[in-house]
Amino acid sequence: MFKMNKAAGKKGVKLCAALLTAVIMITGCSSGSGGSSDGNWVSIEDRYTVDPEKPAWQLDKKEEATDLTWYVNADWWNTDFGKDIVTKKIKEDLNINIKFITGDDTKLNTFFAGGDMPDLLTVFDSNSPVVQKAATWAMPLNDLAEKYDPYFNKVAAADTLNWFQQADGKTYGYPNYSNTQADYDSGNIPAKTAFIIRKDVYEALGSPVMGTPEEFENVMKQIKEKFPTLIPFGFNSIGEGTGSLGDVLQDFIGVPLETENGEFYDRNQDEDYLTWLKTLNKVYRDGNISDDSFADDGTAFEEKVKSGKYATLLMDGTPQQGGNLQIYLSANEGKEYVAIDGPQSTKGNAPTLNQSGITGWMINFISKDAKDPAKAIQIFTYLLSEEGQLLMNYGIEGETYEKNADGTVELLPAVKDLQLHNADKFKKEYRLGEFMFFGHDRHKALSADAFPEAIKQMQEWGKGKLKPHFILENISPNQGTPEARALSAINAKWNSTLVSMVRAKDDASFDNALAAYKSFLGENRWDEILKVRSEKMKQNKEKLGIQ
């Protein structure tokens, strides 16, 4: 999936459980400027008559510009509006002025505690109390569309609306990068995971196969011998999680997503996966995994990617690393990284690579205190439409891009040159690919300019290897429950256990670390967590009509 600032965004803006108190305070009411308990349902009688076949923004005759506030729960969000080519066009077409406000969980909390709500609000954690309690403070998109803009239902995905439906049968939030089954089936969603190897290393070793543990271990030894200055095997920075050695490796070797009877499957204890972890432990003991890889932060990892320090890498988020891979390719033609099959299942399972799921990333709401909810839903419709998607990704036809006869899109030479050679100016003046509240992967397929050259072969390799993980989305216990607290402790324990297993000094140490983890599960409500997850998986299947 193509997202900006993912590391700074998704992990950095998780809504904390402390928000539950603030959300409960507003249950059943919407305090603030002039809103009723059901929202500020303004009249549009003198502005336009709704038409299911035409977006309301094209019909609205309101002359004065509408001023709206939009809160984004991320300090890094670019608050400029109306200065770059993308937001200038949005401002012009919709006749709006948007004042963006940014902050963290504390700032978000103050809105609910103080009652001075913004018109629109964007958060990043679908499991947070703020999202779960949206019916108490946000307006239902279904009703907004019916009253103000029925064309919304033509551009919004029915599966996504159903996915976010709450207990009252209504949907309050709509995300970006929400991929449905149809999106996966289309083949337009590129893989974001790959096992990559430097081309010069691959060719020098005679294009080796490393699908089995034995082959993998042997190739790592060859790399160490022939390329002593390189790190034979690397992976995404561990950080607070498990880097790409956790569920990414599990997906790569096709570990099942559920048990045969449809219950939650503990992928961390899968026999196939543990076999590969033991293999990585042997590779580590041979000196072919660097100790630095367990301590490097994102910046240190990226510097090594830019300089081609790794001979091979299990990489997640190739689009996010596309710039670094491109920097290396540009300076080292013939030595660029290429994707190969790499480690494979010892049981014959095919890869089940994950991509952005139906939950998406940024979830957008219209608050009950919105001054002009008609204009607010028009924004949703506009940005979700093909017109809005093309604008956000590629700008304005004739000014920044041209359409080819086959329907594909190509940036104009001057724009492409600026993108390649003056990224700061490009970002400030054009902002293409950044204003992505309702962005979607499928629109990246319209242009060869959507991704850097460095990752195109990796995406090509990934075709046919994606498998939706819808059934595993949002299945953690609800925040604030004993099971949620226990799961937090278990996740932390697993992160440290995984590192201990890969770095174990011998087989006995490996086995002891795993045994200690299993004991920890038994002491921390694991059986209750399994029940919650299995029940939520069942609910997910019902939502999506999966048998």
UniProtKB/TrEMBL annotation:
Signal sequence extent: 1-32
Key words, A-Z: Signal
Protein origin, superkingdom: Bacteria
Protein name: Sugar ABC transporter substrate-binding protein
UniProt xrefs under InterPro entries: Bact_solute-bd_prot1 (IPR050490)
